[in-house]
Amino acid sequence: MTRIEESIPFDIYPLSETAIILQFGTRIDIHLHRRVKTFTDYLEKYRFEGFIECVPAFSSVTVYYDPIRVLQSEKNGGHSLSKNRSAYDIVCLHMKKMVGELTEMKEDSPREVEIPVCYGGEFGPDLEFVGKHNNLTPNEVIKIHSSGEYLVYMIGFAPGFPYLGGMSEKIAAPRRSSPRESIAKGSVGIAGGQTGVYPISTPGGWQLIGRTPVELFCPNDTIPSLLQTGDVIRFKPISLEEYNEYKEGVK
Amino acid sequence: MSIKINRPGLLTTIQDLGRVGFQKYGVIVSGAMDSYALRIANLLIGNEEGEAAIEITLTGPTVEFEQDALIAITGGDMSPTIEKVPVPLYKPVYVRKGSVLQFGPCLSGCRAYLAIAGGLDIEEVMGSRSTYLRAGIGGYKGRPLKAGDELAINTPGQQSARLIEDLSTSSNGPFSTTSWRVTTNFLKPVSVNTIRVLSGSYYERFTPESRRSFFGQTFKVTPQSDRMGYRLSGPSLQLSESFEMISDAVALGTIQVPSDGNPIVLLADRQTTGGYPRIGQVVSVDISLMAQLKPGDSCRFKEVTVQEAEQLYLKREHELNELRTGVMFKF
Q: Span of the secretion signal (chain B) (predicted)?
């Protein structure tokens, strides 16, 4: 591991011979998140030759590359003296240079997304449990959940699944002791101090409090995920009628 | 022109080289477990190396050809036969209309690839034809193949057409094949496979004993292994001190260790991110070896540096290039 003391501290190390990790820290923290976001945007705008894709996480960015194209581009650039340099070394240099340039980068203001949720009933079988666990009525849980502002720290676990920060501790609840075999697409749940929405049907142990009619994973769209790292989202309570209308409207 | 699936086999899916560029949206890469075998199968019959093919797992399907076709079967040896005549692996095979391809016992490996000249006429989803089982997209209706499925085949390209012309007149049996073949190490039976590994970013956080065991002892592939990852059993791997791990990206071949101490090697259908400490990373060229292990098989891990892994990667690509050129001269 190489430690670079630039204006922005980070570690850089290989994940594999075709992927490199840039780590800005080891905490879940909004400042580190902004760094990750700014760096990702910058990298995608100024892709180096051989860049394949990058995956932003809570406090790191992983960059996938094609060693052959990286070496080819170095050769074409007339860098004949650096014959013994590996593609890994070259990508490290690209990354260090980019982080150095990062201080001048301006952050874009976050995109805001509203997600309608039909709370309780058949869609939220655990709403009451979450309330009881916190000495709240179901309506109070809904009010707290839907009045918060949530930051999308990263997308992972499932296609379009957002890791959200910002849920009130007042409605935190432990995972179910035995996970459900299948959780319906669109389910909104709570696990510990986290809340999330399931874009596809999967098994899971989250406490389910509602469901959204909105599609979070859209495989036929150019950008297949409704949400992206850095978005700010709000949940808006809707009735079952509105939920059904939304579903029909989409059809 | 099409082929018909009469019996599906254990897990028969359509795969190519995977869905690249969408991991930041949580979309997994998928693709062939043994992409090396898939690429060779395609090259042998004049396809683009990343063309979608049929991935076969342990128990193969029964496939009926409703039209003459040029195929190649690579990867594990699942005793393929056409009209009871054994079909050679790693060779272009010309199959006559009405022939039925069957698979028998699995003699080596865990996965075979059936590539067809022209490729499968299947729509791309997010730039790939790979089946993403969990999301139900890609491949054939987003699911494994079932009895009765009919897959349309595209018209073979010029290169393939030349080989078809040669082979179609060369014999009267149910199929005919070339006199040349590709030699491959996969056909050698191995009891203990040595898999080369980079030490992972959390390697130093494991106890000295765990680190010694990881690179010194044998691990076994458990039945809880699938396209997503292989769960291994062996010496328990423990952290010196537990710590709060936050999720970040994981790659093909990442070896992570949950708190039960049993390592998991992440493979084609892995999630894009993971939250367990990474003890190691299988080098790209040995993914094939790993993906061809079946439950009950054993492996050992041997440490290499990232520079060595990169050299192995470059050498492998160079060899594939030579194969590509070599095959072209045969047509």
A: none
